[in-house]
Amino acid sequence: MFRFALAVFLLAQTLVAQCLPAFSADKVVLAANWLAEAEHGGFYQALAEGTYARYGLDVTILPGGPQKNNRLLLAAGKVDFYMGDNIIGQFSALAEHIPIVTVAALFQKDPLVLMSHPGSGFDRFEDLPKAKAFVGLATLTTLWPWMEKKWGFRRENVAPYSFNSAPFIADSRAIQQGYVTSEPFDIARNGGFTPNVFLLADHGFETYSTTIETRRDLLDKNPDLVRRFVEASILGWAHYLHGDNSKANAAIKAGNLDIDDAQIAFSIAQMKKFGIVESGDALTHGIGAMDMARIARHYAEMAEAGAAAKGLDLASGFDLRFVNHGLGLDGK
Predict the structure, then answer these.
(1) pLDDT by residue (tens digit) across 120-164?
(2) Alpha-carbon span 175 to 173, nearest angstrom
(3) Smallest Cα–Cα separation from 103: which of 208, 12, 188?
């Protein structure tokens, strides 16, 4: 009798389960600004450890690269979120009336650096404007006007940087841009010397970096989805920096065959050393923190230097609802 009752009960449970609608996570595509790397580690961590899934999200990360402009896919509605380089891009979107909104800033400091050969007369930041400078096109068209105005850099000294450090390694009188998390490692490995490294964030470049951008229509229609994505990404970054990140690193290496464990370890160490993720407001308000006063201050400098259009409505380009709640403090 007991076995019969149990069988009936199990059958009933099965029928009920079959009648209930299956849970379906929201499909989300995040477009990256570069090939998979440790600088994207928190996003891969949230995916690999299941944090996105726990937030009801089925996330795909679409890698970028030197021949890709994934930001255009966000504007065109082909992806849901974009990994912004810095907030100068948001200023440009506002100027061009593109309905993109920045909702989080995972990097409190932009990792952009200038590097020089030690002992070649360019050991101080104040010496760098005199040197030949290998600079990428994106930097030349955005940041460089501010560098000219604030520090006296000269456009006639610029030589193109195409993500190959060999010309800089060969020319001891030159300087080169890079990321504090990447190029210094490559130069030490391939050039046989440790370059002087000058983090521009420590010399007045106040932009946020590795932002999360989304479209205004998605933000208006589904703010809860945006909230879940932002919060899960923040937790991913906390866990990537302070937890077991082996699965995330495996995914990064699978997506970028040019990256190895040594490069990843260097990048993580540099992010911690220079406070790229955890510094400033992030120490009290949580990872991803943003402050409108800082944004306005940076915008004023960029506009004065001609690197951003004047008269922009900053409030329409930044939404701080999903950050500054203490999430991710102490790696939790």
Answers:
(1) 999 999 999 999 999 999 899 889 999 999 999 999 999 999 889
(2) 7
(3) 208
